[in-house]
Amino acid sequence: MKVIRVKLHQETANYRVPASHGFRESYPLPPYSTVIGMVHYLCDFYEYHPMQVSIQGSYVSTTSDFFTRYEFKNGMKFDPERHQLNAEGFGISRGIGHVQLLYDVNLILHIKPNDESELDTIYHALKYPREFPNLGRREDLANFEDVKIVDIEEKDEDVPVNHSAYIPVQMSEDVGLEDDGVGNKGTHYYLNKNYKLVTIRKGQTQRRWNKVEAIYASGFVVYKAYVDEDGNVVFLV
To answer: What UniProt keywords apply to this chain's record, in alphabetical order (predicted)?
Structure first.
Protein backbone atom coordinates (compact mmCIF):
# COMPACT_ATOMS: atom_id res chain seq x y z
CA MET A 1 0.00 0.00 0.00
CA LYS A 2 1.41 3.38 -1.01
CA VAL A 3 1.08 6.53 1.09
CA ILE A 4 2.66 9.99 1.14
CA ARG A 5 5.05 10.60 4.01
CA VAL A 6 6.00 14.10 5.13
CA LYS A 7 8.73 14.84 7.66
CA LEU A 8 8.55 18.44 8.81
CA HIS A 9 9.94 20.78 11.43
CA GLN A 10 8.38 23.80 13.11
CA GLU A 11 10.21 26.20 15.37
CA THR A 12 6.98 26.90 17.26
CA ALA A 13 3.37 25.86 16.81
CA ASN A 14 -0.04 26.02 18.45
CA TYR A 15 -2.65 23.40 17.54
CA ARG A 16 -5.50 25.01 19.38
CA VAL A 17 -7.81 23.01 21.63
CA PRO A 18 -11.24 24.32 20.51
CA ALA A 19 -12.63 24.75 24.04
CA SER A 20 -9.71 26.91 25.27
CA HIS A 21 -10.34 30.65 25.12
CA GLY A 22 -8.69 32.67 27.92
CA PHE A 23 -5.49 30.68 27.45
CA ARG A 24 -5.27 29.08 24.02
CA GLU A 25 -4.05 25.62 24.90
CA SER A 26 -2.42 23.42 22.28
CA TYR A 27 -2.79 19.73 21.52
CA PRO A 28 0.58 17.90 21.71
CA LEU A 29 0.28 17.00 18.03
CA PRO A 30 -1.88 18.56 15.30
CA PRO A 31 -5.39 17.06 15.16
CA TYR A 32 -6.47 15.24 12.01
CA SER A 33 -8.53 18.19 10.75
CA THR A 34 -5.49 20.51 10.88
CA VAL A 35 -3.39 18.17 8.72
CA ILE A 36 -6.25 17.50 6.30
CA GLY A 37 -6.93 21.23 6.03
CA MET A 38 -3.28 21.94 5.20
CA VAL A 39 -3.31 19.28 2.48
CA HIS A 40 -6.52 20.64 0.97
CA TYR A 41 -5.20 24.21 1.01
CA LEU A 42 -1.92 23.34 -0.71
CA CYS A 43 -3.72 21.13 -3.26
CA ASP A 44 -6.38 23.78 -3.99
CA PHE A 45 -9.13 21.32 -3.08
CA TYR A 46 -12.29 23.34 -2.56
CA GLU A 47 -14.44 20.45 -1.36
CA TYR A 48 -13.63 17.52 0.89
CA HIS A 49 -11.49 14.78 -0.66
CA PRO A 50 -11.70 11.78 1.68
CA MET A 51 -8.34 10.69 3.04
CA GLN A 52 -6.74 8.89 5.96
CA VAL A 53 -3.88 10.36 7.95
CA SER A 54 -1.45 9.17 10.62
CA ILE A 55 0.24 11.67 12.94
CA GLN A 56 3.27 11.22 15.17
CA GLY A 57 6.12 13.39 16.39
CA SER A 58 7.67 15.21 19.30
CA TYR A 59 8.45 18.63 20.72
CA VAL A 60 11.19 19.78 23.10
CA SER A 61 9.25 22.05 25.47
CA THR A 62 6.38 24.49 25.74
CA THR A 63 6.22 28.20 26.41
CA SER A 64 3.58 30.92 26.19
CA ASP A 65 3.25 34.15 24.27
CA PHE A 66 0.92 37.10 23.88
CA PHE A 67 -1.41 37.67 20.99
CA THR A 68 -3.87 40.38 20.01
CA ARG A 69 -7.43 39.18 20.39
CA TYR A 70 -10.50 40.66 18.74
CA GLU A 71 -14.00 40.04 20.06
CA PHE A 72 -17.40 41.09 18.81
CA LYS A 73 -21.00 40.16 19.37
CA ASN A 74 -23.20 39.63 16.38
CA GLY A 75 -25.21 42.77 15.68
CA MET A 76 -23.82 44.87 18.58
CA LYS A 77 -23.51 48.53 17.62
CA PHE A 78 -20.32 50.48 18.17
CA ASP A 79 -20.03 52.05 21.64
CA PRO A 80 -16.96 54.30 22.03
CA GLU A 81 -16.90 53.64 25.78
CA ARG A 82 -16.87 49.90 25.25
CA HIS A 83 -15.25 49.17 21.90
CA GLN A 84 -11.86 50.05 20.48
CA LEU A 85 -12.72 49.56 16.81
CA ASN A 86 -15.64 50.75 14.70
CA ALA A 87 -16.41 48.37 11.82
CA GLU A 88 -18.99 50.26 9.76
CA GLY A 89 -21.14 50.87 12.82
CA PHE A 90 -20.49 47.60 14.63
CA GLY A 91 -18.25 47.44 17.72
CA ILE A 92 -15.14 45.30 18.13
CA SER A 93 -13.16 44.93 21.35
CA ARG A 94 -9.39 44.55 21.14
CA GLY A 95 -7.26 43.12 23.91
CA ILE A 96 -4.38 40.81 24.81
CA GLY A 97 -4.55 37.03 25.20
CA HIS A 98 -2.12 34.22 25.97
CA VAL A 99 -1.30 31.28 23.75
CA GLN A 100 0.59 28.05 24.50
CA LEU A 101 3.40 27.31 22.06
CA LEU A 102 5.13 24.02 21.40
CA TYR A 103 8.83 24.57 20.75
CA ASP A 104 11.08 22.69 18.30
CA VAL A 105 8.42 20.42 16.80
CA ASN A 106 9.24 17.45 14.56
CA LEU A 107 6.40 15.57 12.88
CA ILE A 108 5.97 12.53 10.67
CA LEU A 109 2.71 12.54 8.71
CA HIS A 110 1.38 9.74 6.54
CA ILE A 111 -1.40 10.62 4.10
CA LYS A 112 -3.47 8.14 2.11
CA PRO A 113 -6.18 9.52 -0.18
CA ASN A 114 -9.18 7.23 -0.62
CA ASP A 115 -8.90 7.87 -4.36
CA GLU A 116 -5.48 6.47 -5.30
CA SER A 117 -5.39 8.59 -8.46
CA GLU A 118 -4.91 11.64 -6.19
CA LEU A 119 -1.65 10.27 -4.77
CA ASP A 120 0.57 12.05 -7.30
CA THR A 121 -1.46 15.28 -7.10
CA ILE A 122 -1.02 15.48 -3.34
CA TYR A 123 2.62 14.42 -3.52
CA HIS A 124 3.54 17.20 -5.96
CA ALA A 125 1.54 19.81 -4.02
CA LEU A 126 3.50 18.95 -0.87
CA LYS A 127 6.86 18.37 -2.55
CA TYR A 128 6.72 21.68 -4.42
CA PRO A 129 4.31 23.86 -2.36
CA ARG A 130 3.12 27.02 -4.09
CA GLU A 131 3.85 29.01 -0.93
CA PHE A 132 5.73 28.44 2.32
CA PRO A 133 3.43 26.03 4.18
CA ASN A 134 2.10 26.43 7.69
CA LEU A 135 0.48 24.01 10.12
CA GLY A 136 -1.61 25.30 13.01
CA ARG A 137 -1.85 29.07 12.99
CA ARG A 138 -1.00 31.05 9.87
CA GLU A 139 2.31 32.10 11.42
CA ASP A 140 3.28 28.53 12.38
CA LEU A 141 5.55 27.92 9.40
CA ALA A 142 6.37 24.32 8.53
CA ASN A 143 9.66 23.33 6.92
CA PHE A 144 9.02 20.20 4.84
CA GLU A 145 12.33 18.34 5.21
CA ASP A 146 11.32 15.22 3.30
CA VAL A 147 8.32 14.36 1.15
CA LYS A 148 8.09 11.01 -0.57
CA ILE A 149 5.77 8.21 -1.57
CA VAL A 150 6.49 5.13 0.54
CA ASP A 151 5.16 1.61 0.80
CA ILE A 152 3.62 0.43 4.04
CA GLU A 153 3.06 -3.18 4.93
CA GLU A 154 1.46 -4.99 7.81
CA LYS A 155 3.88 -6.52 10.30
CA ASP A 156 2.74 -9.30 12.57
CA GLU A 157 5.56 -8.89 15.10
CA ASP A 158 6.69 -6.61 17.94
CA VAL A 159 7.45 -3.12 16.61
CA PRO A 160 8.62 -0.27 18.87
CA VAL A 161 6.99 3.14 18.39
CA ASN A 162 9.78 5.67 18.66
CA HIS A 163 7.65 8.84 18.70
CA SER A 164 4.58 10.10 20.43
CA ALA A 165 1.54 9.29 18.31
CA TYR A 166 -2.23 9.38 18.06
CA ILE A 167 -3.62 5.85 18.10
CA PRO A 168 -7.31 5.63 17.18
CA VAL A 169 -9.13 3.76 19.94
CA GLN A 170 -10.86 1.61 17.34
CA MET A 171 -7.51 0.00 16.47
CA SER A 172 -5.83 0.02 19.91
CA GLU A 173 -6.89 -3.55 20.65
CA ASP A 174 -5.85 -4.80 17.21
CA VAL A 175 -2.28 -3.54 17.64
CA GLY A 176 -1.99 -4.85 21.21
CA LEU A 177 -2.12 -1.63 23.23
CA GLU A 178 -4.82 -2.87 25.56
CA ASP A 179 -2.68 -5.85 26.55
CA ASP A 180 0.12 -3.75 28.08
CA GLY A 181 -2.11 -1.08 29.52
CA VAL A 182 -1.20 1.78 27.17
CA GLY A 183 -4.88 2.18 26.38
CA ASN A 184 -5.46 3.20 29.98
CA LYS A 185 -2.21 5.15 30.48
CA GLY A 186 -2.35 7.34 27.40
CA THR A 187 -4.30 10.59 27.13
CA HIS A 188 -7.62 10.27 25.34
CA TYR A 189 -8.73 13.00 22.94
CA TYR A 190 -11.78 13.44 20.74
CA LEU A 191 -10.17 14.96 17.66
CA ASN A 192 -11.90 16.66 14.77
CA LYS A 193 -11.33 15.03 11.39
CA ASN A 194 -13.78 16.33 8.77
CA TYR A 195 -17.13 18.05 8.81
CA LYS A 196 -20.36 18.45 6.91
CA LEU A 197 -22.49 21.56 6.72
CA VAL A 198 -25.92 21.25 8.32
CA THR A 199 -28.67 23.84 7.86
CA ILE A 200 -29.88 24.90 11.31
CA ARG A 201 -32.30 27.55 10.13
CA LYS A 202 -33.07 29.39 6.93
CA GLY A 203 -29.91 30.96 5.57
CA GLN A 204 -27.68 29.58 8.35
CA THR A 205 -25.48 26.51 8.32
CA GLN A 206 -23.32 24.93 10.96
CA ARG A 207 -20.28 22.63 10.81
CA ARG A 208 -20.95 19.18 12.30
CA TRP A 209 -17.61 17.50 12.97
CA ASN A 210 -16.80 13.87 12.60
CA LYS A 211 -14.68 13.17 15.69
CA VAL A 212 -12.15 10.42 16.28
CA GLU A 213 -11.38 9.15 19.77
CA ALA A 214 -7.60 8.71 19.86
CA ILE A 215 -4.99 7.86 22.49
CA TYR A 216 -1.91 10.07 22.72
CA ALA A 217 0.95 7.89 23.92
CA SER A 218 4.69 7.33 23.52
CA GLY A 219 7.34 4.73 24.31
CA PHE A 220 5.36 1.57 23.64
CA VAL A 221 5.45 -1.53 21.47
CA VAL A 222 2.77 -2.82 19.13
CA TYR A 223 2.62 -6.41 18.01
CA LYS A 224 0.71 -5.92 14.79
CA ALA A 225 0.62 -2.76 12.72
CA TYR A 226 1.36 -1.14 9.38
CA VAL A 227 4.97 0.01 9.10
CA ASP A 228 6.69 2.11 6.45
CA GLU A 229 10.02 1.29 4.84
CA ASP A 230 11.96 3.13 7.58
CA GLY A 231 10.22 1.33 10.44
CA ASN A 232 7.75 4.09 11.36
CA VAL A 233 4.47 2.66 12.60
CA VAL A 234 1.43 4.03 10.76
CA PHE A 235 -1.97 4.53 12.43
CA LEU A 236 -4.19 5.60 9.54
CA VAL A 237 -7.68 6.84 10.29
So the answer is: Antiviral defense
